[in-house]
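From the methods appendix. Each design record in this collection lists the tokenized structure first, followed by the designed amino acid sequence. Records were kept in a plain field format so they could be parsed without special tools. The example shown here is representative of the layout used throughout.

RECORD:
FOLD TOKENS (273 positions):
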């Protein structure tokens, strides 16, 4: 079956598969995306399939389905308290790219390497051949891709579980008690749930062969670092700058997660060598 898929033009497979899914999502009674969000997600899914194949597609679909599910945890209660996501959790274009821009850039980087347009020339990773360097750089982009979604799922899960079940929420910068849903607030329940979510999606990345078991550890650690830094940004900067919306913060969050995972892996490789 997999050989048949790879023998067909990946663009045709990607467009056909995602157009079918777009149609099903359009008529589904429970809307996970707005109409505009559907078309942006359609484009993103095609990009991921073409550059990373079904392996990368599995990771982003896991994020989307689980992330949409946890957003609806305790929805009635969160809506009553005024701390629920807008549109009852249905994602628009801004949510799609806020969550996936970093991952899409990593996937695009892999696509460029595989296309042969760019062959890295600077020997800064593997002091052998440019082909070996290309492979190493591609592996780091795979890691950054998985880490970006591990970070975002950790953030989404921590936030939604914390708002629904957090018994005590504290501002991350002062550790003073604050109401649930406050920007920069953290809870034990949410933090633990976020860690579990990051582990789960990192293992999906390992299961499909994008990262190894050590990469799982880097993704989980990077997600923890990035999620807490995102809370610091929310507590200190977000209210001061109108352009620093939740979606922009999400981009910074996933970018920090991807960079942290790559730096952790790079540092580890340097140490063991």
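DESIGN:
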């Amino acid at each position: 079956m997999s050989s048949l898929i790879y023998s067909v033009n990946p663009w045709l497979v990607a467009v056909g598969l995602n157009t079918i899914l777009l149609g099903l999502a359009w008529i589904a009674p429970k809307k996970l995306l707005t109409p505009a969000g559907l078309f942006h997600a359609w484009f993103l899914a095609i990009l991921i399939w073409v550059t990373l194949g079904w392996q990368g597609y599995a990771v982003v679909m896991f994020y989307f389905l689980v992330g949409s599910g946890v957003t609806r945890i305790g929805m009635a209660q969160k809506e009553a308290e005024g701390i629920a996501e807008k549109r009852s959790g249905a994602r628009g274009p801004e949510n799609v790219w806020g969550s996936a821009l970093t991952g899409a850039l990593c996937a695009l980087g892999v696509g460029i390497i595989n296309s042969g347009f760019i062959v890295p020339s600077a020997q800064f990773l593997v002091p052998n051949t440019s082909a070996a360097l290309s492979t190493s750089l591609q592996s780091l982009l795979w890691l950054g891709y998985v880490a970006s979604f591990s970070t975002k799922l950790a953030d989404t899960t921590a936030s939604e579980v914390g708002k629904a079940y957090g018994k005590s929420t504290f501002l991350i910068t002062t550790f003073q008690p604050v109401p649930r849903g406050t920007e920069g607030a953290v809870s034990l329940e949410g933090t633990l749930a976020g860690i579990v979510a990051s582990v789960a999606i990192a293992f999906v990345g390992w299961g499909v062969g994008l990262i190894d078991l050590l990469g799982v550890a880097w993704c989980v650690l990077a997600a923890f670092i990035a999620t807490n830094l995102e809370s610091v940004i929310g507590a200190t900067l977000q209210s001061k700058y109108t352009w620093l919306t939740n979606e922009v913060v999400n981009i910074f969050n996933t970018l920090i997660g991807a960079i942290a995972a790559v730096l952790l892996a790079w540092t580890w490789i340097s140490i063991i060598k």
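APPENDIX NOTE: The chain has a mean pLDDT of 87.
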